[in-house]
Each structure stands twice: as structure tokens, then as C-alpha cells.
């Protein structure tokens, strides 16, 4: 189980809207000059993700919850997203190369196969997203932000 903490944005009718902050450790890595992940993180300004999770327990905004997702579903979705466009790219490029015998045809086939593989992954991910084992679950719930109060006691002589 892969775990991550999230913050409750809102809760209504058994459904919580959660915000997960993106944690990028790109500043501390030794290979930051040639890292593709660092470049991708710079492209988008998104520093958090919003998601919806079903939970019957009432939650308040600002409350922290621990989310979990099964490793198998995460690996399966990563394989679907990365492998299907790659397989489509190679298969259609090889097919166009064999049929038309030119590099330009192979290039066009590669583009079509990659886009087709992406569309296949998109279609399968929509179907797989409804499976219960592919959904994140709330593992634990922290105290509400207003449940803990800290008081400082000062002595009469001002110390």
C-alpha cells in the first residue's frame, strides 16, 4: 500500500474533496541538471492535486487524512499510460515501414501509433477507474484543526 497525507477541502453527503500537495525533491538530487522529471515539474505550475474520495465519517475543512492506494493498481495504471503509446508507436511504425518502405512513412506511422496508443490507454483508464481496487482509500483521519488547543502559561513575575 502506497500512503500519502492529504488535506480536506470539503465534505458533503459522504464524499470528501481532498488536496494532495506535490512533493518534488528535485532541488536536492545530485543529477538535477539532466533530470527529465525536474524539467516536467518546471513546465506546469500545478503544486497540488484535487481528488474525491467516498467516506461516511464527517470531516471538516483543513483536517488531514492518510490516503492509501494498492501498489498493483498504481503499477498497472503506470504500465497502461506508458506502455500502450510506446507499443502503438513501434507496431504502427513497423507496419508503415513494411507497407510503404520509406522513413517518412515510418515516422507518420510512429506518430499515428503513439496517438492511437494514448487513446487506447485513455479509453481503458476510464473503464478501470470505476474498479474499487483502483480507488484511493482513507486509511486514517487526524484530529480536526480546532480540536487541539495550545495554551502558554506565564508566571506572575513575567518570566
Give an overview of the whole structure:
This protein has 159 residues and is of the alpha+beta class. The protein has one domain. Helices cover 40% and strands 23% of the residues. It contains 3 helices and 5 strands. The protein has a 5-stranded antiparallel β-sheet with strand order 3-2-1-4-5. A hairpin with a 2-residue loop joins strand 1 and strand 2. Helix 2 runs antiparallel to helix 3. The longest helix is centred in the middle third of the chain and has 30 residues, at 71-100. The chain is elongated. It starts with a strand and ends in an 18-residue tail after the last strand. The mean pLDDT is 84.
Describe the structure concisely for a colleague.
This protein is of the alpha+beta class.
Q: Helical element count?
A: 3
Overall helicity: 40-55%
Structural class: alpha+beta
End-to-end span in angstroms?
49 Å
**Per DSSP, what share of the residues sits in E-state strands of 2 or more residues?**
15-25%
- What strand order characterises the main sheet? 3-2-1-4-5
Oligomer: single chain
Helix-strand sequence: EEHEEHHE
Mean pLDDT: 84
Number of strands: 5
Indicate the radius of gyration in whole angstroms: 24 Å
The domain count comes to 1
Largest sheet: 5 strands, antiparallel
General shape:
elongated
Low-confidence residue ranges: none
Amino acid at each position: 500500500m502506497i500512503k500519502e497525507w492529504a488535506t480536506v477541502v470539503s465534505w458533503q453527503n459522504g464524499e470528501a474533496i481532498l488536496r494532495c500537495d506535490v512533493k518534488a525533491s528535485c532541488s536536492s538530487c545530485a543529477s538535477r541538471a539532466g533530470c527529465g522529471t525536474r524539467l516536467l515539474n518546471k513546465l506546469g505550475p500545478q503544486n497540488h492535486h484535487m481528488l474525491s474520495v467516498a467516506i461516511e465519517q464527517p470531516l471538516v475543512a483543513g483536517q488531514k487524512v492518510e490516503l492509501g492506494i494498492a501498489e498493483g493498481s498504481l503499477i498497472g495504471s503506470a504500465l497502461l499510460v506508458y506502455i500502450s503509446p510506446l507499443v502503438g508507436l513501434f507496431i504502427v511504425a513497423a507496419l508503415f515501414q513494411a507497407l510503404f518502405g520509406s522513413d517518412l512513412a515510418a515516422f507518420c506511422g510512429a506518430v499515428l501509433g503513439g496517438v492511437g496508443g494514448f487513446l487506447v490507454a485513455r479509453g481503458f483508464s476510464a473503464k478501470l477507474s470505476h474498479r474499487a481496487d483502483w480507488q484511493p482509500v482513507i486509511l486514517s483521519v487526524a484530529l480536526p484543526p480546532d480540536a487541539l488547543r495550545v495554551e502558554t502559561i506565564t508566571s506572575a513575575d513575567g518570566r
